Amino acid sequence: MHLKKTKVLLGVILSGFFLLGGCASKSERSARESVVQELEKLQSSDSQTIQDTIDTQQLLSSSQYTEETAEEIGDIYSLFYKDFSFEIKKVTVDEEKGTGKAVTRLTTIDAGSLAKDYSLSLLEKQVELEADPEEVKFSLNDSCILLKKLLEENDYGTETSETEISLKKEGDSWKVIHTSDLDSLLTGDFASYMSDSRLLSPSEIVNAHFGTIKDFDSQQLIIYLSLDQLVDTDDSYNHSLAAAIGEQISRSFDYEITGEEQEDSQADVQVSITSPDFESILSSYEEQLTQWLKTSESLSDGAQGRREKERSLLLSCIEDNEATVSKNITIHLYNDGINWKIQMDSDIAEAVFGDIPSAIGSISQDVE
């Protein structure tokens, strides 16, 4: 008797499962399968399949595509969607109108963090190019390489969002409607983050600039700071002077961001900057020159000998200097609707360059 009741109860339960499973109409099941097939393309190992599925301009503009760029972009998409997943929660269709909706949970890369790192990398690259003797322009392929490197070297994790995916019926099948909002969600809103003029804070902008300068070698500093234009002398001596100053800055330059204030489109960032003490260099030079001028050698060497000695003394004072000076300055920035821009002024130049122009200018009449 108990066995019979158990069989009856089990039959009722199983019948319930079958009934529930059969709740979705054939059309709804077809619509669901269309969404599954479309989103599974983003999980494909074939990058071209991914690019054919969404609007590629949501990541990178295609206006400069080349064969070389296409390969890099292919790798980017494969990396971008390596952790992509989805869950279709509910599908509804309107047979008369031939429309449908699929409530879907999307798991995409944390595009906000990626966009921030990418923007910083682009900014650092821009500063680097200002110290490039070749004056090479930054291309789309360069952008691809930067983005690919970030995706390869970092794990950005994922974020989830829920959306209604629209469908329309074409004949006996259903097709996903790719709206701009859907394609944006499928990229984690990467393009939206990239177009946010406040994605990077003023302090992050300043840090990107000064951090890149700090990593420059002496040759990059010569180009970036135009050190070879400090004095109007023959090329050989000018090069030696620029090299000595560049090496000094390379060894000594440092900075610390100590504060930030924002108001509307204006911002102030407080920075403590350490640079070579060129006043100390000038003082040492004048002291040594004064002592040498008292010697009989200075009289016997004549004008040409005096000129060469003065140059030699100046170079040695720069090369041997170990003194540094720190100065607190306020860097002003404004937001132009694209990003925060540093307003370069004499305070920044003096703090970063170590007041080179005035120090060298004080000596230039002696060495020319």
What is the fold's blueprint, element by element?
Elements: H1 2-21, H2 26-40, H3 47-53, H4 67-80, E1 85-94, E2 99-109, H5 111-129, H6 140-153, E3 158-170, E4 173-176, H7 180-186, H8 190-194, H9 202-214, H10 218-224, H11 235-252, E5 254-263, E6 266-276, H12 278-293, H13 296-320, E7 324-335, E8 340-342, H14 346-353, H15 356-367
Antiparallel strand pairs: 1-2, 2-3, 3-4, 5-6, 6-7, 7-8
Short description:
With 368 residues, this protein is α+β, with helices and mostly antiparallel strands. It has helices spanning 2-21, 26-40, 47-53, 67-80, 111-129, 140-153, 180-186, 190-194, 202-214, 218-224, 235-252, 278-293, 296-320, 346-353, 356-367; strands at residues 85-94, 99-109, 158-170, 173-176, 254-263, 266-276, 324-335, 340-342.
Can you give a write-up of this model?
54% of the residues lie in helices and 20% in strands. The chain has 15 helices and eight strands. The strands form two sheets. It has a four-stranded antiparallel sheet. Strands 5-6-7-8 form a four-stranded antiparallel sheet. Helix 4 (67-80) packs parallel to helix 6 (140-153), helix 5 (111-129) packs across helix 6 (140-153) and helix 10 crosses helix 11 (235-252).
* Helix and strand element order: HHHHEEHHEEHHHHHEEHHEEHH
Instruction: Give the helix proportion (percent range).
Output: 40-55%
State the oligomer: single chain
Strand order of the largest sheet: 1-2-3-4
- pLDDT averaged over residues: 84
Low-pLDDT regions: 5-22
Organism: Candidatus Blautia pullistercoris
Protein name: DUF5105 domain-containing protein
